[in-house]
Amino acid sequence: MAIVNWRANVKNLVVKPYWVLGYTTQDFPGDNSSLNTIQQHGSLIDAYADFAYRIFPNATFTGQINTQILQEATYLNIAPLILFHNFYASRFDPHPLIVMLSSPFLQQLCINNILKVLPANAAGIYLDFEAIPAHLSIPYINFLESLSVRLHAEGLLLAIAVPAKIDHWQGPGYDFQRIGNLCDSVTVMTYDEHFAGGPPGPIASIPWMTQCLNYATRLIPREKILIGIPVYGYDWSYGQAKMIPMKEISALVAKTKANVLWSDSAAEPYFFYWQQGVKHTVWFENDTSIKIRLGLVKKYNVRGIAIWRLGYESKGFWQSVGAEL
User: Fold this and answer.
1) CB 241 within 8 A of CB 321
2) Which of 263, 264, 232, 12 is nearest to 121 (CA)?
3) Torsion 103-109-113-115 (CA) sign
4) Which residues of the chain have pLDDT under 70?
């Protein structure tokens, strides 16, 4: 961590040996599943990232903070991080980032606008800027450097998500070493090894996660790294796969009378079922696979985990978190 006169809620966070961070969001209006998790399992959560604001090319934002979660988290001494992203129409759209990062003026305007919308009790911000092209790697570093200076002057954290990769040429827009030097927390998104728009396969196989963490820990200080933990599965059939929360998998298995199998190589469960003559393939995380993945925190001596997302997890998940971290 940089030497900063942290705000009180940040001081409480930075002294903890392990962090459990969860993303909060709403899949539909009135979706309170993230809030419910905060209320029920807040004693096991150290920080949360509110998926609040989407960036426009002119460096302004749309969206809003979930004030209910903010109020509850503050009461429970969970550090609030306000998340800024470029997710639009079911994908991460690079266009707003390309425009903003290509202009030093828009970079500074973006930083000013970020600081304007932060609530008084925020512990910092969380950037989930994805699909940054290679030619903007250096402008992105310049942006992060300016942003970190402004945030640290206010005693605030700069947290960031980066793609999981095994070498520089995967996601070349993200310079892990420089990002690791500038940011206070770096989540390596070790999930979606197989994603909704691709062929079926493990959500996050252990060999793949190991490769990604081997690469990340060579370049980013271990005490800053959070391991991305998925608490969902994908149901592949024709076209786009459907995401299924971890807590809903058992009901699907019961409904389809599927036989759950286990991949020793991936350390992850999967199953097949047929519906109206169409074959479905489901890979997912369960309590056993999650426990194995949580063990990577101590194996790699990193700071903790980042859960996508709060509200999807099973009750057994929190028992494992309590036991492992």
Assistant:
1) no
2) 12
3) positive
4) 1-2
Dist. CA 74–CA 77, nearest whole Å: 5
Count of structural domains within the chain: 1
Q: Are 171 and 165 in contact (CB under 8 A)?
A: yes
Task: Tell whether omega for the bond before 150 is within 30 degrees of 0, i.e. cis.
Answer: no
Distance CA 105, CA 114 (A): 14
Cα dihedral 151, 297, 318, 306 sign = positive
Q: Which residues are 275's β-sheet partners?
A: 278
Tokens 């997302």 belong to 309
Q: What is the pTM of this model?
A: 0.98
Tell whether 44 is covered by a domain: yes
Domain that holds residue 115: 8-231+286-324
The residues that bridge with 261 in the sheet, in sequence order, are: 270
| Count of beta carbons in the 10 Å neighbourhood of residue 179 | 20
Would you state the pLDDT for residue 315?
86
| Residue 59 located in a structural domain | yes
Q: What is the b/e burial string over 196-229, where b = at least 16 CB atoms within 10 angstroms of the residue's CB?
A: eeeebbbbbbbebbebbbebbbeebeeebbbbbb
On whether residue 77 sits in a domain, the answer given is: yes
Predicted confidence at residue 1, as pLDDT, reads: 60
Residues 6+ apart with CB under 8 A from 134: 172, 173
How far CA 116 is from CA of 101, 150, 276, in Å, comes to 19, 12, 52
Length of the chain: 325
- d(Cα 113, Cα 60) in Å, to the nearest integer? 7
**CA dihedral in degrees (291, 294, 295, 299; nearest 10)?**
170
Residue 110 makes CB contacts below 8 A (sequence gap 6+) with 55, 59, 100, 143
